[in-house]
Amino acid sequence: MKKVLVLGGGTAGVETAIFLKKEGFDVELVSDRDFFYIYPISIWIPTGEVGLDSISIPLKDLSESHGFKVTVDEVERISASDMKVYLKNSGERSDFDYLVIALGQSKIKHEGIEHTLSICGSPQEALKIRERIEDLIKIGKGKIAFGFGGNPRAKEAVRGGPVFEILFNTHNYLKKLGIRDNFELIFFAPMEKPGARLGEKALKMLDRMFNKMGIKRFTGKKIKRFTQNSVVFEDGSSVEADLILFTPGGTGHPVIKNSDLPQTEAGFIKIEDSCQVVGFENIYAAGDVVSIEGPEWKAKQGHLAEVMGRNIAHNIAVKEGIKSGEPKGYKEHINIFCLMDMGNGGGLAYRSENKALLIPLPVIGHYLKKGWGVYYKLSKLGKIPRIPGM
Ligand SMILES: Cc1cc2nc3c(=O)[nH]c(=O)nc-3n(C[C@H](O)[C@H](O)[C@H](O)COP(=O)(O)OP(=O)(O)OC[C@H]3O[C@@H](n4cnc5c(N)ncnc54)[C@H](O)[C@@H]3O)c2cc1C
User: Domain FAD/NAD(P)-binding, which positions (predicted)?
Assistant: First the structure.
């Protein structure tokens, strides 16, 4: 049986490994973490609703459930032209027939970024956010700035949803503690209309929520740099804060940028609709590491990363003659599907070629997302059946 080496143990890598095993391949997954970190439900770490354990799945457990091998190691270099991968501890690897790259993305490094923390970073960074919020709660007052940036070279590499989610959750957490009035919550972003890709209805709803929650906004101002306690904009103005929670625009993973893989200006891998890397017969890539093609509002999301993973397993199986059928593409699956949590409810945002919907889900929205988290963990481990598309 042909061997597939999957690089990355996140949303795309795990889904690819599970489905490659279903097709009968010999699969080894390499990850620098020994657990799968479920980003969408990490938004409750800052307010202490969840700990790391409840939003992670040990890769060992996934390996036992699905039968793929796991190697915990760091990918240092990829040489696509001679099908070699270099790992920090295990050294050079070329003992595979197919390579799947699912290493995720990196973030743009603004001047003074070390003075900020992001919910879209490492699990340790999310814990640090929690610690800093708790420190301010102990003092009893504070000023917290929440923001996100973009990448002009890759407009789809923006992660605004989780920033709105931790902002609204923090508001509701402070309210529950009865100290919201002692805190100033600020939102900043360089775009004129942050969140616009969700559609006009979502923008209006966000606007109403900001007003209702008393959150000050600084939008349409390009960020120049950060200092320990301020965000400095290009027009010379600035915003002071005790804590700055900022998620920069995404950029290519350093391993990809330093490789011979075909890539965009921003360092994202160029792929065909089938997820095959352009010009490389036996190399595929999935998830945040790739450049996606589609409508102006396109976004990189977990469900798309999973579709890519499943398609890769199918497409390699078809190529190997294990099954019949046509190769499957990712482009027809581009949409935005997001249950945005607010701590005391939520909103279901959906965007496709013909529709832009935002359905407010007071109270129930929060519990739906909580329920999804439980379902996701159990279904990944094969303990309950998967619902198609979720
Ligand atoms: C806070 C947050 C909330 C989100 N909420 C939603 C949501 O509600 N809905 C939705 O659809 N999407 C959401 N997303 C987006 C979604 O999580 C991503 O699109 C998805 O995780 C991408 O999967 P990936 O496998 O490409 O990358 P990742 O999940 O980032 O996985 C990359 C993996 O590669 C590993 N890795 C990286 N570098 C190396 C290396 N050098 N060597 C070995 N291993 C390495 C990492 O440890 C990680 O396991 C959210 C993202 C964030 C950050």
Answer: 2-292
Cα separation, 189 vs 27, in Å, equals 42
Instruction: Copy the structure tokens of residue 134.
Output: 């708790």
Say yes or no: CB of residue 300 within 6 Å of ligand 1.
Answer: yes
In the CATH scheme, what is the homologous superfamily, with its name and number, of domain 109-250?
FAD/NAD(P)-binding domain (3.50.50.60)
The model's pTM: 0.97
Q: Is the CB of 338 under 6 A from ligand 1?
A: yes
Measured CA to CA, the distance from residue 379 to residue 373 in angstroms comes to 10
Cα angle, residue 63 at apex, residues 96 and 251 outer, rounded to 5°: 65
Ligand 1 within 6 A of CB of 159: yes
pLDDT per residue, tens digit, the chain (390 aa), is 899 999 999 999 999 999 999 999 999 999 999 999 999 999 999 999 999 999 999 999 999 999 999 999 999 999 999 999 999 999 999 999 999 999 999 999 999 999 999 999 999 999 999 999 999 999 999 999 999 999 999 999 999 999 999 999 999 999 999 999 999 999 999 999 998 888 888 888 889 999 999 999 999 999 999 999 999 999 999 999 999 999 999 999 999 999 999 999 999 999 999 999 999 999 999 999 999 999 999 999 999 999 999 999 999 999 999 999 999 999 999 999 889 999 999 999 899 988 888 899 999 999 999 999 999 999 999 999 988 777
CA of 92 to the centre of ligand 1 (A): 25
Residue 125 Cβ inside 6 Å of ligand 1? The answer reads no
Please give the radius of gyration of the chain, using alpha carbons only, rounded to the nearest integer.
21
Q: Which CATH superfamily is domain 3-105+252-334 in?
A: FAD/NAD(P)-binding domain (3.50.50.60)
Ligand 1 pocket residue status of 75, Cβ below 6 Å: yes
Domain limits, the chain: 3-105+252-334, 109-250
Counting atoms of ligand 1 from 1, which one is nearest the CA of 337? Answer: 11
Q: Which residues pair with 254 in a beta bridge?
A: none
Are 158 and 151 spatial neighbours (Cβ–Cβ below 8 Å)? yes
Is the C-beta atom of 33 inside 6 A of ligand 1?
Answer: yes
* Best residue among 43, 288, 337, 348 to mutate for probing ligand 1, ranked by most atoms within 8 Å of CB: 288
